[in-house]
Specification:
It contains ten helices and nine strands. The termini are far apart. The chain is an alpha+beta fold and 269 residues long. The protein has two domains: 121 residues, 3-Layer(aba) Sandwich (L-fuculose-1-phosphate Aldolase), CATH 3.40.225; 121 residues, L-fuculose-1-phosphate Aldolase, CATH 3.40.225.10. The longest helix has 23 residues.
């Protein structure tokens, strides 16, 4: 990994930011054990000092991603813990180059013990989202997946397992939710973790949302930076936390009125 950085200050800044956000995810309890993963498109940061990669084997992708062919990504390693990613980022991340045709990828990094690292099991979903961002010429480069207690709990309650109800709670509990995530949260019914089905369902929702909630599992968020992707998750969690705090106190939360929500929409339109 050090050879890939090789004095690249911009790339080091991205690694430092990943480390910082990984610490936040761990501190908030949103990344138990090896839960959660982070990826960043670093193609624009790769310079001419890249070491020879011709000997790195190509690994087939279950679902080709031609629009991100030839691109480079940083992604948390399979089995890595966010608390370790925070403390020792270079030992817990993988650098990947996607083949030019998008049908395979190469792993370009090893840890300090020269042991090859393997990307997160959620790689298909991350690549699907990054491909969508490329197709849409988006400036977003970062994707975060985490297990956010408050949002997962909401999907354990039958009456809230739909997009309309979820977003009514988010926007109703705090004005900032409408300002930060005006498109609301996309909701994906339960799918097997790491599956192509989950990736495809996420892709459909990501087309219109910055953050997607997976039923009984967690959230996926995209942003121009890792910090921005985290902020989308943070405000959504705060709104739902307020909702449950009111419920736990024995009161039904009043929430913002439809008129007040519309007024907020008018501010950002």
């Amino acid at each position: 990994m050090e050879k890939l950085i090789n004095g690249n200050r911009e790339l080091q800044n991205v690694i430092d930011e990943i480390s910082e956000i990984a610490g936040y995810l761990w501190d908030r309890g949103w990344a138990e054990k090896n839960a959660g993963n982070i990826s960043v498109n670093i193609t624009s940061l790769i310079n001419d000092s890249l070491p020879d990669i011709s000997s790195s084997p190509m690994l087939d992708l279950a679902e080709p991603s031609p629009y991100i062919g030839g691109m480079f990504f940083l992604i948390s390693a399979a089995g890595s813990l966010m608390r370790n990613l925070n403390k020792r980022p270079l030992d817990n991340m993988v650098v990947i180059r996607v083949a030019n045709n998008g049908a395979a990828y190469q792993i370009l990094s090893v840890n300090n013990d020269s042991v090859p690292l393997v990307p997160s099991s959620e790689l298909p979903t991350h690549f699907a989202v990054h491909q969508l961002l490329k197709i849409r010429n988006s400036t977003k480069k970062a994707v975060i997946h985490s297990h956010v207690d408050e949002l997962i709990a909401l999907t354990q309650i039958q009456q809230y397992k739909n997009e309309e109800e979820i977003n009514r709670i988010l926007w109703g509990m705090h004005p900032e939710s409408m300002i930060v995530i005006p498109q609301g949260v996309g909701f994906v019914p339960y799918k097997l973790t790491g599956s192509v089905d989950l990736a495809q369902a996420t892709l459909e929702k990501m087309a219109g949302h910055d953050i997607v909630l997976w039923e009984k599992h967690g959230v996926l968020s995209s942003g121009e930076s890792v910090s921005q992707a985290f902020d989308y998750i943070d405000i959504a969690a705060k709104s739902v936390r307020i909702f449950f705090m009111c419920k736990a106190s024995g009161f039904e939360p009043e929430g913002l009125t439809d008129k007040q929500i519309e007024e907020l929409k008018g501010m950002i339109s």
